[in-house]
Design goal:
Chain lengths: ~250, ~800
C-alpha cells in the first residue's frame, strides 16, 4: 500500500540546473544538459531513454557516484555534489541503497555477509543484530535459504534479490537501481520489479533506470531523457502508453 | 623503423610503466646478487692465490738442528729444487697490557735477500735495527700498538725483554693475526741472540721446481732432500708440507663464496619467476589482441617470439643496469674479505667469462622461466581468444578451501574480505609466499647460524671445565708443577697432561706434517690425558673415551679423524712421537670444539711412549674465580708463579681468548647472509606489490561496489593493506619452515669448513620475532601504493572498469 502522504511532502531529491560534461579525444561531450528534477519521498520513478541519453549519468548524480560539472544535487537537503569522498561514501551507505545490473555481490562473502557489509561500513545496527537483520531482509526477498551460500552458487535472479536485500541493509529512504532487470529473464524480472514496488508501498523512494517497458507500468512517474535533457515527464499508466507509442512510432 | 609488431610490444611496455618497472627492478636485483657474487668470486680467488703466490711460499720446510747459508746454497743445486732459504720460527710470548699473548717470531737470515715466504715493508724500518722487530700489519690489532711501542717479549729460553716495534710489514702467506689472536714478528738473527736464544737457524725452506702444487710431488722431493741431508750427517726432525699453493683460509673462502653464489642464483630464479607471472598476467589481458593477431595471419611461433623477445629485452635492460652496480658492490665486498684475510687486492679486473655469464643468465633465466606461460598464451586459438571475456572470473567458491574460508566467522567483514581475497588468485599467492618466505628463510637462517655458532662456541665452556691451558717449552716434573701452582691463590684444580706435535708416521721415512709456517693451521697433536679427567667432557661420536688402565688406546677428535681416511674403531694407527713411530688402537671418536686435530691417549701410555714418566708438557688449571676479572688475575698469578719457578711457558691460552678467536671467524658470513636476505626480501616486496597491483586492477569494479554501498576510501585502503599483511603473516610461517633446512645446510657447510662438525640447528626466537615484524612492515609497505590507488579511484571509474 502506497503512502500518499509521503508524496505530498517536500522533495527528497532535487536537481537544479545540473550539467555534466566529459572530456573525450574528440573534445567535450555534454551528457546532461540543464537538468531540473524533483522527486518526492515515496515516489516510484523510472528514468528511460535511448542508449547514451544520460540515464545512468543522471542516476550517478543522485547517488554522488559522479559529480555535476555545474548545478546542484540535493538529497534530503544534503548537498551531495559538495560532499568530499569519505563523508560522501558514509552518507551514501546510510541513505541510499544501490542495485546494479550485474548484481555485483562480492564473490568472497556469503549472501548474508554481503548484506551485513553495508551495516559494517555504516555502523547503523549493532554488531549482534546485523545477521538477524540480514536474514530478515533475505526472508523479505524470498531467498533466506541461501543465506550462507557464496554468490557463485546462486542463479541470476537470486543474486539480484540478494543485491536488493543488500541495498536495504541500512534501511535507506532511497533505493536506486541501474537496469536491475537487464540481465534477467522475463519471469524473474517481473518478480524483481514486484519487489521494488513493494518497497515503494512501504514508504521507500525508488528510482530506476531501465529499458524495460514493463517496469514503467509500476511507476508513479517516468522521466524520458533524450540527448541529456528531460524530454518529458509522464505519470502512471499514461506514462507507459505515451512512451510506448512514441517509441513505436520512432521505430 | 620498427615493424608494427615490435612497436606494439614497446607500446605495451610503455603503457604499463609500473609493471615494466617492477619486472626490470626485480630482475636487476637478482642479477645484482649474482653479479656481485660472481665478480667477487673471480676477484677474490685470483687475488688470494696471487697474493699467496707472490709471497713465493715454500713448498716444504725441513726442521734441522742447524742450517746455514752454505747448506741452503748447496740445496739450491739439488735436482728438483727451485730455491731454498734458511730461517727459524720461534714460538714466543709478547706482553699485551698485563697479559702474555702468543707471538710467532720469524728469524730472517737476510732481509734484503728474501727468497721464500717473502713479505713486504709497509712502513718504518727495513731491515729491523738490532734489538727491534718488524710486526705483521694484521697483528697490530692484537698488539694494540704500532711502530714505536716497545712490548716485552719472552722467548723459550730467554728472559722478558723490551723489543721496540721498528716497522710494519705485510705477509700474505699468513692467516691474519686478529683471527688467530697471534702477533707475528720478524727479527734478525742478531736480535734472536739478544733475546736469550742461540742465534742459530733451524729451518730449511725449499721450493720444489717440478709440480710445486702437487702434494705427492712435494712430499717426494722434500723427503729426497731430507734423505740426502741425512747422508751428510744432518738430523732432519720433521718436514712441514702445507697444502701446496693455497692460502690457509683459501678453501674456507671458496666454499663460502660458492654458498653465496648459490643463494644469489636462487634470488635470480625467483625474480625471473616473478617476471614470468607478470608476463602471464599481461598475456591474460591481451588474449583478445593475440586472437586478432592470429586472425590476421600471425603464427603461434611469431606470437611467442614477440613476447619472448620482450622478456629478453627486459632482461637485457636489467642486466645493463645491474652489472655496473654489481661491480661496485663486488669491490666493496672483496675489500672487506681481503681485509679480513689480510691480503691486498691488486686488481679489480673481472674476466670476460664472468661478465658473459652474467649477461647470459640475466637474459636467458627470465626467458626460460617465461617460456611456458608465453607458449601457453601464444597457442590460444582465434575462436578461444575472441570468445574470451577479458579477465576470468575469480570463481570463488569452487574450491574446498573457499568453502572452508566461507565458514570462517568471528572477525570483522572487512578483514574477512581481505582474508578470503588473499586466496582468490592462488598462483599469485604462492608466488608472493615463495618470494617472501625465501627472504625470510634466508634472514632467519643467517641469525640461526649465528646462534648455532654461538652455541657451538658455548660448548668451549660446556665441554671444557678449566680456565687456562698452559703449554710448556720443555717437559717439567709433575709434582714440582703441582706443588708450585697449588700455592697460587684461587687455583682450585690442576691437571698435568702430556702434549706433543705428531703426524701419521710412515716407518723408515721422515715425518711429514701438514702444518703451515704459523704452526697452527693444519697442526696435529698427540695429547696424554688423565682418563678420569673432569676438565674435558667431549661428546663421544663412536666408541668410548679413555679409561683408567687403557694401554695403547687412542681416541681421535673429528679433526684428527678426517686426516685418516676410513679409520674405524679397533683400527691401529701409527703416530709419530718425538720422531718415533708409535702404535695405537683406536677406541673412540669425539667431537671437540675449537681445537685442531688431536689424538688423546692416556697420560701413562703417553709418558711411557715418549719416555717422559713423571713429567708433563701441558697444564690445565681450574680456578675458583667468580668472574672474568678475577679469573684474569688468577691466570696472571699462575704465569708469575711459573716464571718464578723457572718454568718456560710456550703458550698460555685462556678459554676466553679461544672464544674471541672463534667469534671473529663467522661475522662476515652472517652479515653477507643478511645482505642476501635483504636482496631476496626486496624481490619479495616487489612481488607482493606487483601481485597486489594486479589484484586491485582486477577487482576495481568490486572496489567501486564497496564504495557505492558505503565503504570510505580509508576502508578500501584498510582492506587492501590487510590482505597484504595477511600474505606477509602467512609467508612468515613458510619462512620459519624454510629456515629449518636452510639453517641446517648453511650450518653444515660452515661447520664442516671450520671444524669438520656440522653446526646443530639453533632456531633463534629473536630472528623469528624480528622477521615477523619486518615482514608485516614490508608487506604493508608493498601494498601501500596499490591500496592508495584503490582508495583514490572514484566510484564512477571503478564501476565503469572492465
Amino acid at each position: 500500500m502506497k503512502n500518499p502522504d509521503a508524496k505530498t511532502g517536500s522533495p527528497l531529491i532535487e536537481l537544479r540546473g545540473v550539467n555534466k560534461e566529459f572530456l573525450s579525444p574528440g573534445g567535450k561531450v555534454k551528457v546532461l544538459n540543464n537538468i531540473n528534477l524533483s522527486i518526492k519521498q515515496g515516489e516510484f520513478v523510472t528514468i528511460v531513454g535511448k542508449s547514451g541519453s544520460g540515464k545512468s549519468t543522471l542516476l550517478s548524480m543522485i547517488t554522488g557516484i559522479d559529480r555535476p560539472s555545474s548545478g546542484a544535487v540535493l538529497v534530503d537537503d544534503t548537498r551531495v555534489h559538495l560532499l568530499p569522498e569519505g563523508p560522501l561514501a558514509a552518507w551514501r551507505g546510510r541513505n541510499i541503497g544501490v542495485v546494479f545490473q550485474f548484481f555485483q555481490l562480492l564473490p568472497t562473502l556469503t549472501v548474508a555477509e554481503n548484506i551485513m557489509l553495508p551495516m559494517d561500513f555504516a555502523g547503523v545496527y549493532p554488531g549482534h543484530r546485523r545477521r538477524e537483520r540480514a536474514l530478515a531482509l533475505l526472508g523479505q526477498v524470498g531467498i533466506i535459504e541461501h543465506a550462507d551460500k557464496l554468490p557463485s552458487s546462486l542463479s541470476g535472479g537470486q543474486q539480484q534479490r540478494a543485491a536488493i536485500a543488500r541495498a536495504l541493509a541500512n534501511d535507506p529512504p532511497l533505493v536506486v537501481a541501474d537496469e536491475p532487470t537487464g540481465n534477467l529473464d522475463g519471469h524473474t524480472a517481473a518478480e524483481v520489479i514486484k519487489l521494488f514496488s513493494n518497497l515503494v508501498s512501504s514508504g521507500k523512494t525508488v528510482v530506476i533506470v531501465t529499458h524495460e517497458r514493463d517496469v514503467t507500468t509500476f511507476a508513479d512517474r517516468t522521466i524520458v531523457l533524450a540527448d541529456g535533457s528531460i524530454e518529458s515527464e509522464l505519470k502512471g499508466a499514461r506514462a507507459l502508453r505515451n512512451y510506448g507509442a512514441r517509441e513505436a512510432a520512432r521505430a | 623503423m620498427l615493424s608494427p609488431r615490435w612497436r606494439k610490444l614497446l607500446g605495451d611496455l610503455c603503457e604499463s610503466r609500473q609493471r615494466t618497472a617492477a619486472m626490470v627492478i626485480s630482475l636487476a636485483i637478482g642479477i645484482f646478487g649474482v653479479g656481485t657474487m660472481l665478480d667477487s668470486y673471480s676477484i677474490l680467488t685470483r687475488e688470494i692465490a696471487g697474493n699467496y703466490q707472490a709471497a713465493n711460499p715454500a713448498s716444504a720446510t725441513l726442521e734441522l738442528a742447524n742450517v746455514d747459508d752454505a747448506l741452503a746454497a748447496d740445496v739450491r743445486k739439488f735436482p728438483g729444487i727451485a730455491d731454498a732459504e734458511v730461517r727459524a720460527t720461534i714460538l714466543s710470548r709478547i706482553r699485551v697490557g698485563d697479559d702474555w699473548t702468543r707471538l710467532l717470531l720469524f728469524v730472517i737470515n737476510d732481509f734484503n735477500d728474501l727468497r721464500l715466504n717473502t713479505f713486504k715493508r709497509e712502513s718504518g724500518a727495513w731491515p729491523p735495527p738490532r734489538g727491534t722487530m718488524l710486526v705483521e700489519r694484521s697483528s697490530v690489532k692484537v698488539l694494540k700498538a704500532g711502530i714505536g711501542a716497545a712490548p716485552y717479549i719472552k722467548t723459550p729460553h730467554g728472559i722478558p725483554r723490551e723489543v721496540p716495534v721498528s716497522g710494519l710489514v705485510h705477509d700474505t702467506s699468513l692467516a691474519p693475526g686478529v683471527q688467530e689472536q697471534t702477533v707475528c714478528g720478524y727479527i734478525t738473527r742478531e736480535t734472536l741472540g739478544l733475546l736469550g736464544e742461540k742465534p742459530v737457524l733451524d729451518e730449511l725452506r725449499i721450493l720444489v721446481a717440478d709440480h710445486p702444487f702437487d702434494r705427492t710431488s712435494v712430499d717426494t722431493t722434500a723427503r729426497s732432500v731430507a734423505n740426502r741431508l741425512q747422508t751428510t750427517g744432518q738430523v732432519v726432525r720433521q718436514i712441514q708440507v702445507p697444502q701446496p699453493g693455497r692460502h690457509p683460509h683459501q678453501g674456507q673462502m671458496t666454499g663460502v663464496l660458492f654458498l653465496f653464489i648459490s643463494f644469489s642464483l636462487m634470488a635470480l630464479v625467483l625474480s625471473a619467476i616473478l617476471v614470468a607471472t607478470l608476463v602471464s598476467a599481461m598475456l591474460a589481458r591481451q588474449i583478445r589482441e593475440i586472437g586478432v593477431m592470429k586472425a590476421v595471419g600471425a603464427t603461434t611461433g611469431q606470437i611467442a617470439t614477440m613476447y619472448l623477445a620482450m622478456v629478453a629485452l627486459l632482461g637485457a635492460v636489467a642486466t645493463a643496469s645491474a652489472m655496473p652496480l654489481a661491480l661496485l658492490a663486488a669491490r666493496t665486498f672483496s675489500d672487506a674479505i681481503a681485509n679480513l684475510l689480510n691480503f691486498t687486492i691488486m686488481s679489480y679486473h673481472v674476466p670476460l667469462w664472468v661478465l658473459a655469464v652474467q649477461i647470459a643468465s640475466g637474459i636467458l633465466v627470465p626467458v626460460a622461466m617465461a617460456a611456458f606461460p608465453i607458449m601457453r598464451g601464444a597457442r590460444v586459438t582465434v575462436r578461444e581468444a575472441i570468445n574470451d571475456y577479458g579477465l576470468k572470473s575469480d570463481a570463488f567458491g569452487q574450491h574446498r578451501l573457499d568453502s572452508a574460508l566461507a565458514r570462517l566467522q568471528g572477525i570483522s567483514r572487512a578483514y574477512l574480505l581481505a582474508l578470503r581475497n588473499m586466496f582468490r588468485r592462488r598462483g599469485r599467492l604462492i608466488l608472493s609466499l615463495v618470494l617472501l618466505a625465501a627472504g625470510g628463510g634466508m634472514f632467519m637462517s643467517a641469525l640461526n647460524v649465528r646462534d648455532a655458532w654461538k652455541v657451538y662456541i658455548g660448548r668451549i665452556y660446556a665441554d671444557r671445565h678449566y680456565d687456562v691451558q698452559i703449554k710448556l717449552n720443555e717437559p717439567e716434573r709433575e709434582d714440582a708443577l703441582r706443588s708450585a701452582l697449588q700455592k697460587v691463590r684461587g687455583v682450585a684444580k690442576i691437571e698435568t697432561w702430556g702434549y706433543s706435535e705428531t703426524t701419521l708416521a710412515q716407518p723408515g721415512l721422515v715425518d711429514i706434517v701438514r702444518t703451515y709456517p704459523d704452526g697452527g693451521h693444519g697442526s696435529f697433536a698427540i695429547v696424554g690425558a688423565p682418563p678420569e679427567t673432569t676438565m674435558v667432557m667431549f661428546r663421544v661420536l663412536a666408541g668410548r673415551w679413555l679409561q683408567p688402565g687403557d694401554g695403547y688406546a687412542v681416541v681421535l677428535n673429528q679433526m684428527a679423524r678426517s686426516l685418516i681416511p676410513d679409520v674405524k674403531i679397533n683400527d691401529t694407527v701409527l703416530l709419530s712421537l718425538n720422531g718415533r713411530a708409535t702404535k695405537w688402537r683406536v677406541e673412540g671418536f669425539v667431537e671437540e670444539v675449537g681445537f685442531p686435530a688431536a689424538a688423546y691417549v692416556s697420560e701413562k701410555a703417553y709418558a711411557q711412549a715418549a719416555g717422559l714418566e713423571g713429567r708433563a708438557q701441558m697444564i690445565r688449571v681450574t680456578s675458583s674465580a667468580a668472574d672474568q676479572a678475577e679469573r684474569v688475575e688468577i691466570i696472571r698469578s699462575i704465569e708469575q708463579t711459573l716464571a718464578t719457578a723457572g718454568v718456560s711457558v710456550r703458550e698460555g691460552l685462556p678459554l676466553a681468548v679461544l672464544r674471541t678467536a672463534m667469534v671473529e671467524h663467522v661475522s662476515v658470513l652472517v652479515n653477507t647472509l643478511i645482505a642476501t636476505a635483504v636482496l631476496l626480501g626486496l624481490i619479495g616486496v616487489l612481488g607482493l606489490a606487483s601481485t597486489m597491483s594486479m589484484n586491485v586492477i582486477e577487482r576495481t569494479r568490486e572496489l567501486g561496489v564497496m564504495r557505492a554501498i558505503g565503504a570510505t576510501p580509508e576502508t578500501v585502503m584498510r582492506i587492501i593493506l590487510s590482505e597484504g599483511v595477511f600474505v606477509g603473516a602467512l609467508s612468515w610461517v613458510f619462512a620459519v619452515i624454510t629456515s629449518v633446512p636452510l639453517s641446517l645446510l648453511v650450518g653444515r657447510i660452515v661447520g664442516m669448513l671450520s671444524f669438520k662438525v656440522p653446526l646443530a640447528l639453533a632456531m633463534s626466537p629473536v630472528a623469528m620475532l624480528l622477521w615477523f615484524v619486518v615482514v608485516l612492515v614490508i608487506s604493508a609497505a608493498a601494498c601501500a601504493y596499490p591500496a592508495l590507488r584503490a582508495s583514490r579511484l572514484t566510484v564512477r571509474e571503478a564501476l565503469a572498469y572492465g
